[in-house]
Amino acid sequence: MVGAEALTFEKVWEMFQETGRQMKEDHERQMKENDRQMKELKEQLKETDRIVGDLGNRFGELAEHLVAPNIKEKFNELGFTFERIYQNLAITDFSTKRCLAEIDLMMENGDIVIAVEVKAKPVQKDIDKHIERIEVLRRRADARNDTRKFQGAIAGAIMTDEVRDYTHSAGFYAIEQTGDTVKINIPKDFKPREW
After folding, report:
1. Over 80: is that where the pLDDT of 14 sits?
2. 158, 121 contact by CB (below 8 A)
3. Average model confidence (pLDDT) for the chain?
4. Do residues 174 and 154 touch, judged by C-beta distance below 8 A?
């Protein structure tokens, strides 16, 4: 072999070291690229979460607009005489200005107040959270010597049988979307819970 260098241990060792350096550099480049892609993905996920949150709010607003126009009349058909209905109430602590509860719809007359939580598709935790809201309303009323009775309702454009049953077991009226109106689903022997 004319012109070919003889391989020595030192030459082989140098080639291994050079290959190791190249592999390390390639690995570091790949890690930097992976980090860049992960940061980009996190930003995309944040934007997706924001869009989904906005969409969820829009569905909630849509559900409220479908429920609000008919709800007072539907309850009045059941023997209530609600004169006023309020939308999107924030119940605040006067001293701290902190929001204690937000009520989607609230109907009241001289004796009874019904707080309605409106969801596109309610789930069990929505009912549990609504119980907490009404307890806040009750405490606030007690502090003001308001002796009216408080009741609750859950309204949904889509309501599963399980959620409807859970709603009733919590003592809430179940309000469901039917076409361009709503119906109040009341099982036999239903007794609304009062706070």
Report:
1. yes
2. yes
3. 87
4. yes
Structure tokens at 169: 């077991």
The encoded tokens of residue 21 equal: 């350096």
Coil, strand, or helix at residue 29? helix
CA distance to 15, 73, 84, 177, per residue, from 139 (Å): 79, 28, 22, 31
In order of their start, the domains of the chain are: 66-185 (3.40.1350.10)
Q: Contact, 150 vs 168, CB < 8 A?
A: no
73-86 pLDDT, tens digit each: 899 999 999 988 89
Residue located via tokens 């010597």 = 145
DSSP one-letter string for 74-126: HHHHTT----EEEEEEEEE-TTT--EEEEEEEEEE-SSEEEEEEEESS--HHH
Which candidate, 85, 135, 133, 139, places its Cα nearest to that of 109? 85
Q: Are 105 and 143 in contact (CB under 8 A)?
A: no
CA distance 121 to 83: 28
Higher pLDDT: 13 or 67? It is 13
Q: What is the pLDDT of residues 106-121, one digit of tens each?
A: 999 889 999 999 998 9
